[in-house]
Every structure is written in structure tokens, then in C-alpha cells.
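Quick illustration, no need to memorize.
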Amino acid sequence: LAMTQQAKVVSVVAVVLCLLSVSVSATFFRVEANNDHCFLENAEAGANIGLIFQVVEGGALDIDLAITDPSNNPVYEGKREREGRYFFVAHEAGTYRFCFSNKMSTLTSKTISMTLTVGQVETEKADPLEAYVTPLQMSILELADGLSAVMIEEQYMQTREKVHRNTAESTNARVFWFTIFEMIALVTVSFYQIYSLQTYVEVKRRV
């Protein structure tokens, strides 16, 4: 009995260590103009499914999203969205489809950052070792679940910060080049005015 309990403790600690050592990373992909990009994910009935995405680059930073269930019924449809966080419970087992559409664009491609998670279904069958899980071990398991959620949120915030930084840098570049163009135009107009004034004075003297 003691050996069984020790094995249970070791397995719990191993799970937590694995979660601590693995970082949640987003998937980056490009959707070409007038094209779709779809992902297929298998899920059991009752599983929690989460999708977090953000348009990182391209055009007006918008994309169309469609989520369909195994029976090809729409779960969610969004038009011209810049970012989104959607969570739902799979009502039937099978393959769920997540499609990003860039058909509103004829020339510009879009770069998307996406994190897709599918949870495990909790079975009602009792675990014979459940009686030996102490409150401390249960707290560790809950902490592991919370840690996974925090890592996903951290990845989302990093992607969001990257988008805002790219937007700020693009705006600064546009302001810089507009200022250069404005200075060149001002200098050109000034020289033209000086030349016109000199020409006018010379003509008056001859007269």
C-alpha cells in the first residue's frame, strides 16, 4: 500500500515537472490572398476546446474564421476579425475544422499566430488510486492546470505586444518618410520662389 502511494506521488510530481519544462508556443502560419488555411483536430464528446489567434501581419490585420463540427455544422463564424479567444465544449466526438479565410484580399497575404488546445474528457470511472491522493497532491494537480493556462496567456500577450510593436514601428517609419518628403518639398518651393523673385527683379531693371 505504501509503495502504491509513493508511486502515485512520483507520477504527480513527474507530470508537474513536465509542465514546468515545456513552454506553450503559438503556431505561426501565412494565409495567401484569396485562399483558406484549415486545421483539423480530433476531440471526444465533452472535451474542452480552446482557440486563441491574432493577425500579426498583412493588410488591415483582419481575417475570416469558421469553426465547424464533425457533422459540418457551424460552431462559430467571424468576419474580418483581428484577434479572438474562443472556448467551447465538443458536443460530439470526431474531427473539428478551424478555417482561416483570406478571400477578402486579392493581393495581400496575412500572417496568423494561433494556439489551439483540446482537453481530455473526465471519465466517471473511479480511479482505484484516487483514495490515496492527498489534498496536497490534488493542489499540485490544480496548480499544474493553472500553470498551463498562464503559459497560454503569456504567449497570447507576447504575440499581442509584437503586433503593437510592429504597428508602432510602421507608423514611425511612415512619419519619418513623410517628414523627409515635406522637407524636400519645402526646400524646392523655397528655391523656386527665390529664382522667380530674381528673374522678376532682373526683368524690372531691364525695363
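Residues 135-206 form the longest helix (72 residues).
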